[in-house]
Amino acid sequence: MINLSGLNLMDRPLISEYGFTGLEAAIVLIAFVVVAAVFSYVVLGAGFFTTQTAQATVHTGVQQASSSIEIVGNTYGIADPGDLTHLKYINITVALTAGGTAVDLQQMVLSYNDNNGGHNANLTYGGVAPDTNGACSNAMNGGSGTAQEWCIAEKINNQTAGAMLEQNAQMIIAVGLPDTATPSTKFTINFHPATGAVLSISRTIAGSIYPVQSLY
């Protein structure tokens, strides 16, 4: 027989007799499920937000990369019959590109440059003709420096009042030119719409100026 008389039973480690009950296991499992669900919701929410942001960025990029207006037909230079030393203004017809939405031309900025020293970063908008304030009169009289103006001289098949350009419609824009628009001068006009890419046109005035002439 084994003699246990010399052993101190108080030195033996206490051994818990309690088991891991089913209720405790259920509580731990539920805690893990709740934490996993919250984490999954946060991850999915972040993913959806990232996807929506990417879509908005793509749509904005497409709008900014594509021009919303285009030039239709010829560009005509107009001069004073009594002074054929330079052009007074030009007529440019614009329309929306295919599938484009309506554009408020009043929000558009025009800039002018030529190789004869003419420059204007922001031509003054003169309004829509005809009106009681004589819109386009200043643009059609030309100008120099900050005196240059542009206006909407005529609307074709456009049902909306004001400067809103619609689909299947056209607007003739008159742009006043400075005295530097002399024979053989090359000029560039940039159209900066509120939405869309800049539309730039370059034309060269012929060696001889006539009251009305096409520019190429």
Description:
With 216 residues, this protein is of the alpha+beta class. The chain has two helices and twelve strands, in the order H-E-E-E-E-E-E-H-E-E-E-E-E-E. The chain starts with 21 loop residues before the first helix and ends with a strand. Helix content is 22%, strand content 31%. The radius of gyration is 37 Å and the shape is elongated.
Topology:
Layout: H1 22-65, E1 69-78, E2 89-96, E3 103-104, E4 109-114, E5 119-120, E6 124-128, H2 137-140, E7 149-156, E8 164-165, E9 170-176, E10 186-192, E11 199-204, E12 212-215
Parallel strand pairs: 6-7
Antiparallel strand pairs: 1-2, 1-12, 2-9, 3-8, 4-5, 4-10, 7-9, 10-11
Task: Note the overall shape.
Answer: elongated
- Estimate percent helicity: 10-25%
> Major beta sheet, specifics?
6 strands, mixed
Distance between the termini: 122 Å
Overall number of strands: 12
Which structural class matches the secondary elements?
alpha+beta
Radius of gyration: 37 Å
Strand content: 25-35%
Number of helices: 2
The strand order across the widest sheet is 6-7-9-2-1-12
Report mean pLDDT, rounded to a whole number.
Answer: 82
Low-confidence stretches are: none
Multimeric state: single chain
Order of helices and strands: HEEEEEEHEEEEEE
Would you summarize the structure shown here?
The protein has helices spanning about 20-65, 135-140; strands at about 70-80, 90-95, 105, 110-115, 120, 125-130, 150-155, 165, 170-175, 185-190, 200-205, 210-215. By secondary structure, the protein is α+β, with helices and mostly antiparallel strands.
Give the key terms.
single chain; 12 strands; alpha+beta; 4-stranded antiparallel beta sheet; 216 residues
